[in-house]
């Protein structure tokens, strides 16, 4: 038998010369492994690595087990890799926030955010909460680094927070978040009225571009 791998599955040629295509049903494989094969660990690992549905309840239960055992690092890693981002929610952030900080130890909340940052980009809520910690600790340089590395999702709320410590950095966030009214106000406060005109033209052109794309795809 000859096997050729393809995107989403593989082709096989049997001894009769028949060409067969085998693919994985992403919607059911996790439930099959956990239910029919009774292999919960494999099911969770498949769901995490492939970002597949079907193990949501298993992942949530495992997270609460780790948290109850004060294994915050392992819980943070599970949350970071959770399929469909089911553990990337405000409730999970609040759970880490609620843990008392022990003297001489890294706060669980920082362990959580640190783990997420090693995995990729934070969502809007995570970005806001981590930035709030950094602003309160007067560590603006960390924000600059994360923004340069595209680790934070920019939003108007994030810009409002950062503006309390750095107007220039806040303007960059507003622009990236496409918070047009706040961008215009920021330029006006800096008396850079010429940039308001340039920015407005860019917004109009961008709007026309997206309208064209929508028209093409309809």
From TrEMBL:
GO terms for biological process: intracellular protein transport; receptor-mediated endocytosis. One of its GO terms (molecular function) is clathrin light chain binding. Residues 26-49 form the Clathrin heavy chain linker core motif domain. It comes from the Eukaryota. Pfam families: Clathrin-link, Clathrin_H_link. This is Clathrin heavy chain linker core motif domain-containing protein. One of its GO terms (cellular component) is clathrin coat of trans-Golgi network vesicle. Gene3D superfamilies: 1.25.40.30. It comes from Crotalaria pallida.
């Amino acid at each position: 038998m000859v096997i050729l791998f393809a995107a989403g599955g593989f082709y096989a040629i049997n001894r009769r010369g028949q060409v067969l295509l085998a693919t994985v049903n992403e919607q059911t494989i996790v439930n099959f492994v956990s239910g029919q094969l009774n292999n919960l660990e494999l099911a969770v690992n498949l769901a995490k690595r492939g970002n597949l549905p079907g193990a949501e309840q298993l992942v949530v239960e495992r997270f609460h087990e780790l948290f109850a055992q004060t294994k915050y690092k392992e819980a943070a890693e599970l949350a970071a890799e959770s399929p469909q981002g089911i553990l990337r929610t405000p409730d999970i952030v609040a759970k880490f926030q609620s843990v008392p900080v022990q003297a001489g130890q890294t706060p669980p909340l920082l362990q959580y955010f640190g783990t997420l940052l090693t995995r990729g980009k934070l969502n809007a809520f995570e970005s806001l909460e981590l930035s709030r910690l950094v602003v309160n600790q007067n560590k603006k340089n960390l924000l600059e680094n994360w923004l340069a590395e595209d680790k934070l999702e920019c939003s108007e709320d994030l810009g409002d927070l950062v503006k309390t410590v750095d107007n220039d950095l806040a303007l960059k966030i507003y622009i990236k978040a496409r918070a047009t009214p706040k961008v215009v106000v920021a330029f006006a406060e800096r008396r850079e009225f010429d940039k308001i005109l340039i920015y407005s033209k860019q917004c109009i052109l961008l709007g026309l571009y997206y309208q064209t794309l929508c028209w093409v795809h309809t």
